[in-house]
C-alpha cells in the first residue's frame, strides 16, 4: 500500500516493474468530496497530477509508451435544473460540462490534464515521434457491485438498497423515488476498462468516452429488490444536498462513440444485471457470512 501523493514510490514502481498500463482508480467520490473539498482536491487532482507527471517522466526517459487509463464520471455533467434534465436527450461527451460538485470539477479538470499530457508533450517530442503517455478516459455511470458496498458516492443509494435488503435490513433511500441516473454493474465496468486499454490508438477518435448500460429510477430499483426480498423495508428520506447532486447528473448518457470506435457494448441490461449477477452473487455472499 502506498500514498498516491508519494512521488518517489510511484516513480520506483513504474521503473522497477516496467509498468506498461496504469488504471488510476483512486479518488474521493462525490458525497465524500463535498464533506472535505480540500482533501478531495488533494487526492483527486494532486494525486492524478503526480501520477501523470511521473508516468510521463519515466515513459519519456525510457523511450516507451505507458498507457494511462483514467475513470471519470457522470459527475462531470451539471444540468442546471430538473426540467432541462427531463427534456434532455442522452447527453454526449461535450454537453453540460458544468459540474456542481468538487468531485465533478476534479474529474473534468483531470480529464483535461490527461489530454494536455497526451497532446502537448507529443507535439514537443522531436527526438522520437511516438507518444509516451497514452491517456485514455472513460466516463462511468453509477456502478453497482455485488461484492463491495461503495462509500462516499452519491449513486450509492442503489447498491446500498440492494445490499441492505439482502441482509434483511431496512433502507432509508436518500433520494426521491423518481430520481433517474444511468448505471452499470461491476463486470461491465471492468470489461470497459480492459477494452479501452486493449484497443489500438488509431481506432480512437476521442480521448474521453461515455459508457453506460441502463438508466433507471430509485423506485424501479426498489421494486426489483422488493420482488426478491419482499420483507425489505425500503423508505425514502431525500437529503437535499445529495438530491441536488443527482438531479444535476443526466438521466442517460450517449455512449455511441465508444460503441463505434472500440465496439463497446454492455453485457448486462437491468433485468440481466439483477437476475444473473446482483441477486445470485449477493445472496451467495450473505449466505456464506451466516
Ligand atoms: N459513483 C460516483 C459518485 O456517486 C459518481 O461517479 O460519486
Descriptive terms for the model:
Rossmann fold; 3-stranded mixed sheet; 14% strand; Epimerase_deHydtase; alpha/beta; binds serine; 4-stranded parallel sheet; NAD(P)-bd_dom_sf
Task: Please characterize this protein's 3D structure.
This protein is α/β, with parallel strands linked by helices and 290 residues long. It has a single domain (16-289), classed as NAD(P)-binding Rossmann-like Domain (Rossmann fold), CATH 3.40.50.720. It has eleven helices and nine strands. The protein has a four-stranded parallel beta sheet with strand order 1-2-3-7, sandwiched between helices. Strands 4-6-8 form a three-stranded mixed beta sheet. The longest helix has 25 residues, at 37-61. It is globular. The relative contact order is 0.15. The mean pLDDT is 94. The structure holds serine (SER). Serine binds at residues 29-30, 73-75, 103, 140, 142, 153-155. Residues 29-30, 73-75, 103, 140, 142, 153-155 line the site of serine. GO terms for molecular function: L-threonine 3-dehydrogenase activity. Belongs to the NAD(P)-dependent epimerase/dehydratase family. Pfam families: Epimerase. InterPro entries: Epimerase_deHydtase, NAD(P)-bd_dom_sf, NAD(P)_epim/dehydratase. This is NAD-dependent epimerase/dehydratase domain-containing protein.
Category by helix and strand content: alpha/beta
Given this structure, which CATH class is correct?
Answer: Alpha Beta
Number of domains in the coordinates? 1
Record the strand order, biggest sheet: 1-2-3-7
Instruction: Look up the CATH topology.
Output: Rossmann fold
Fourth CATH level, the homologous superfamily: NAD(P)-binding Rossmann-like Domain
The total beta strand count reads 9
Radius of gyration from the CA trace?
20 Å
Bound molecules: serine
Order of helical and strand elements: HEHHEHHEEHEEHEEHEHHH
Percent of sequence in beta strands: 5-15%
**Poorly predicted sequence stretches spanning 5 or more consecutive residues:** none
InterPro entries: Epimerase_deHydtase (IPR001509), NAD(P)-bd_dom_sf (IPR036291), NAD(P)_epim/dehydratase (IPR051225)
Domain NAD-dependent epimerase/dehydratase: 2-211
GO molecular function: L-threonine 3-dehydrogenase activity
Family: Belongs to the NAD(P)-dependent epimerase/dehydratase family.
